[in-house]
Write a structure and sequence with these properties.
The protein is mainly beta and about 230 residues long. It is about 5% helix and about 55% strand. The strands form four sheets. Strands 10, 13, 14, 16, 17 and 18 form a six-stranded mixed sheet that branches. The protein has a four-stranded antiparallel sheet with strand order 1-3-6-5, with no helix packed on it. A four-stranded mixed sheet has the order 2-8-7-4, with no helix packed on it. The longest helix has 9 residues.
């Protein structure tokens, strides 16, 4: 087909529209608890592209209705988007759309990236701690019980963690270890020690990579000798 005149000139100068998400940095986007991480999106576009819009969304269909992320338009088809711990972790899709001078969509490109949310340690507590009986003869046993729980959208028992019991004798400011127990179903634990002198007991959980530590309330036990009578 022969093209002449203005048509020929137009054909010779026609631009092949190109649009590509060239880089997403960092990838994965690692977000620490209580902080925000900015991800940068670099878009390559041909000269006929006059406007580029960028959007991001989790790939999981369950998050389709989430609030639109704020996109900051930088110079030269570069964009910046902030991510925080409230964003869904996992696979995300970035979509770039190109428009010509008349506002017509002329190209689209998409690329995947990952968001890694590093949550802070979960809060724990030791509930229902008790040292029994509240009066005991020297040399007899004192029994401890309690429950280790984690706040996971409600308090739940934690199984398989070690809880230690400490003792502070009357007249002393120092806490000394007396027993260790491993939590069972429902976070319950139990232990025992020999009665020596009246004092205060408490349970302590040191925490883990995922769980914060916790201390129980204190419980007092009175210890009496063989001379004591009711």
């Amino acid at each position: 087909m022969l093209v002449s005149g203005a048509g020929a000139a137009s054909a010779a100068t026609k631009v092949d529209t190109q649009l590509k998400i060239r880089d997403i940095s960092p990838n994965p986007v690692v977000v620490k608890a209580g902080a925000e991480t900015t991800a940068y999106f670099d878009i390559g576009a041909s000269s006929d592209v006059k406007k580029v819009e960028l959007s991001v969304a989790p790939e999981d269909a369950g998050f389709r209705t989430m609030r639109t992320k704020d996109v900051k338009d930088l110079e030269g088809w570069r964009f910046a988007i902030g991510f925080n711990e409230n964003d869904p972790a996992g696979k995300w899709r970035a979509t770039a759309v190109a428009f010509d001078a008349a506002g017509k969509e002329i190209a689209k490109d998409s690329s995947f990236f990952a968001v890694d949310i590093q949550k802070g340690k979960a809060e724990t507590r030791i509930s229902r701690f008790s040292a029994d009986p509240y009066k005991v003869r020297k040399g007899k046993s004192i029994y401890f019980s309690g429950r280790l729980q984690v706040d996971d959208e409600g308090w739940e028992g934690v199984r398989g963690e070690r809880v230690s019991v400490y003792y502070r004798a009357n007249g002393s400011s120092a806490w000394k270890w007396v027993a260790t127990a491993k939590t069972k179903w429902g976070g319950k634990f139990s232990a025992k020690t020999r009665a020596y002198k009246s004092g205060t007991f408490r349970a302590v959980y040191n925490g883990s990579d995922e769980l914060d530590g916790a201390k129980s309330r204190t419980d007092y036990v009175r210890v009496y000798g063989s001379w004591w009578r009711r």
